[in-house]
Amino acid sequence: MDAPSLHRRPGAPRRLAATLVAIWLIISLLAPSLVQASFLSFDLKDERELGEKFNIMIRSRMPLIEDTEINDYVTGLVDRLTRAMPPQPFPFTVGIINNNAVNAFAGPAGYVFVFTGLILQMEHESEVAGVLAHELAHVSQRHIAKRVGEMKLLSLGQLVGVLAGVVLGSTTGNQDLGSLVAVGSQAATAHAYLKYSRDDEREADQVGMNYLVAAGYPPGGLVEAFETMKRMRWMQGGGVIPTYLSTHPGLEERMGYLKDRVKMLPKDVQDRKNNDAAFKRAQMLVRARYTDAKNAVAYFRKLGDKMTCLDKLGLAIALSRSLEDVGQARAAFDEAVACAPNDPLVLRETGRYYLKVRDFARAKSLLEAALRQNPTDIDANFEYGRMLAQEGKPAQAVAYLEKVRQRVPENAEIRSIYGQILGQSGDLFHAYLQLTYAAVYDNNPPQVKFQLGKAKAAAKTDADRRELAKLEETIKKRSEFWKKRIME
């Protein structure tokens, strides 16, 4: 079994359809919490509450990636685009979902989720940015919020279930399955009503193009993304392509008017070049770590003499996942380090590998070098903390794990390992506290009850009891989604 890694979430579901059906089953059976005013008066407070619940469900039920390189990269793209937008009522929060859907979606209250399939299948950063600009335009133009505001009274649980159905349909290309999630005549009608109209899509194209250009990207990014998705639609039957490309008959028209807009731009804007350095790093990690290992090995090996240092690292990561014989992976990692000895990503990943094979001296040297180059790298801090604990230095390890916890607060595996290390250091109260949080974020009510009891018994001070109160508030927010867990 592989050593623990913060890239996997214990028990995280891997099938998008089943996951979102489960989202609806849980959320729609919550104790009724009606928004008492008609949604004709749907305001920012209502949207914030809806967005928070939607975000909790997506993050608790979908396999999210917590890799510094990938998360910081995508967050940077969104930040760059939002700086080109008018002021928005909510900050944007970004999550990366490990799924091959070639899409992204922006939910209520600024919660943005990007699927790894989008990063993997695009050729340039400007194409990913184009899709994100399109989704952010739906937010700035208030397409979902306006439609919610025009609907009749629904419970908050029903409405989140409806949104889950919309997301399901838009990310799997299966509208029948999306409608199945929105069970009940009211919800089914709302599901049909909430889907973006052709006019919505046209406006998102035009406004998204404005944001893309204002952010400094090559203006053809959105058109090129559509071209890529169009090719994939014909090759794959549309299963992982956004529904707005597979169901609207006007795709050629949309691409046509976007191309016409590009031609009308100043020549210096038309001639902008792609800068894909950061994009290629994120794409390599997605391919090497999150796709089928054997397919990834074949992809990198096929490059032959054209392999860059980054490709060599990708091959090494893929080999480390696919081979029982560690010799080939070791050689590949060493070759990557020789090729790029000062790249913190190469150093981090090679250090992670040597920690996995329990070569602690080599792992320590590499991880320390990675942290010198990039002290804020959460993955490097996580692996170095684990290494210190395995060396019998839990008190030193705690400082590194605390940094990681602060940056990635809702990862069950990080909380679990942090709790184990705190236990080794003798801090039993905080050990049980972290293990309770781990159970909360892993959606494991029996373990929550067990670990919470241990934490309460270990609490000695007023400060301990204040931390317990904060934990219990988190449990309260999450536990409403457990009430009908037996239905899964």
From TrEMBL:
<dbReference type="InterPro" id="IPR019734">
    <property type="entry name" value="TPR_rpt"/>
</dbReference>
<dbReference type="InterPro" id="IPR001915">
    <property type="entry name" value="Peptidase_M48"/>
</dbReference>
<dbReference type="Pfam" id="PF01435">
    <property type="entry name" value="Peptidase_M48"/>
</dbReference>
<dbReference type="GO" id="GO:0016020">
    <property type="term" value="C:membrane"/>
</dbReference>
<dbReference type="Pfam" id="PF14559">
    <property type="entry name" value="TPR_19"/>
</dbReference>
<dbReference type="InterPro" id="IPR051156">
    <property type="entry name" value="Mito/Outer_Membr_Metalloprot"/>
</dbReference>
<feature type="domain" description="Peptidase M48">
    <location>
        <begin position="69"/>
        <end position="261"/>
    </location>
</feature>
<keyword id="KW-0482">Metalloprotease</keyword>
<keyword id="KW-0645">Protease</keyword>
<keyword id="KW-0802">TPR repeat</keyword>
<dbReference type="GO" id="GO:0051603">
    <property type="term" value="P:proteolysis involved in protein catabolic process"/>
</dbReference>
<dbReference type="InterPro" id="IPR011990">
    <property type="entry name" value="TPR-like_helical_dom_sf"/>
</dbReference>
<keyword id="KW-0479">Metal-binding</keyword>
<keyword id="KW-0862">Zinc</keyword>
<feature type="repeat" description="TPR">
    <location>
        <begin position="344"/>
        <end position="377"/>
    </location>
</feature>
<dbReference type="GO" id="GO:0046872">
    <property type="term" value="F:metal ion binding"/>
</dbReference>
<protein>
    <submittedName>
        <fullName>Peptidase M48</fullName>
    </submittedName>
</protein>
<keyword id="KW-0378">Hydrolase</keyword>
<dbReference type="GO" id="GO:0004222">
    <property type="term" value="F:metalloendopeptidase activity"/>
</dbReference>
